[in-house]
Amino acid sequence: MGSRRRDLVAILAAVVLSCISRGASAAPAAASFGDNFEITGAEDHVKTSADGQTWYLYLDNKTGKEKVRGGGGPSSELPSKVVHAVSQGSNANPSSASIPFLFFFLPGVGFQTKERYLFGWFSMKLKLVGNDSAGVVTAYYMCSDVDAAPLRDELDFEFLGNRTGQPYIIQTNVYHNGVGGREMRHSLWFDPTADFHTYAILWNAKHIVFFVDKVPIRVYPNDASKPTSNGFFPISKPMYIFSSIWNADDWATRGGLEKTDWAKAPFVSSYRDFAADACAWPAAGAPPACAAATGASWWDQPPAWALDEAQRLDNAWVGRNVLIYDYCDDRKRFPTPPEECALRNAGNAS
């Protein structure tokens, strides 16, 4: 009898171990960065960690050699990557109605998501270029068109490098139907080169919120009275997510006074832990059900439609302590503030 019990126990133990083993082997592997993204340029300047979870973009003076001649008219007439450079660089003279004929260097190191999304939560951890990064811009943004078409929608994080010891500046911007000029700039309250920090965008039909380590640094509201027909809020075009590192020493640091020191190259930006809790848009066919306001996802429910009390306090702290530039306050560029500025002010007052 004792022998039979021992045999039964042995059989049961073998079955349990077999199930555990099969369960472990069936567990899906963690998604690698390459599962979500594809390289868009200078593949030999993109490196990946051994586990595939971290990507590194390397910028040197070889990746910025391609240049094109453009300008003499609206920036919408320029090639796609130049459009992005000019539209951001125009902060040095933002009231300019046209761009003179110049040679522009094209950013050559970057990646983009394989999928497009309409609404959701998008986050990624970045570690920015350390030491002397003057003239170097790391861009992390969403855009409705791969080629930055004239009527594109776009949501931007841009990190403007600086001389060693000087603080990084983060610039955010919003485009709707090709119209941008909604820049805000903040200094970061930590060293973004020492470790990874999380940069996220919450996008729903009510507002767009830019987060840094869960702190809402910027809120861009929609107009509830005409949510789909105003001239400033992206609401209908699904977007890819991009990142790139590029030379912008004609404008990025002190208005172009500080030039990129190529002797310090390569300049390296690092990425990991991408997450998109969002409405994925199919490559073909009808729009997905999540594109409508169904309330099925947390980012499409009332708690995500406005900042909570703690977030409002954090956002107010940001405005008091680290805000450098706000287009809503720039009367030289906008004698009459854009209409969304009044919506934001009303939200802050409530």
Automatic annotation (TrEMBL):
It comes from Urochloa decumbens. SUPFAM superfamilies: Concanavalin A-like lectins/glucanases. The keyword Glycoprotein applies. One of its GO terms (molecular function) is hydrolase activity, acting on glycosyl bonds. Residues 1-26 form the signal peptide. It is found in: Secreted, Cell wall; Secreted, Extracellular space, Apoplast. Its EC number is 2.4.1.207. This is Xyloglucan endotransglucosylase/hydrolase.
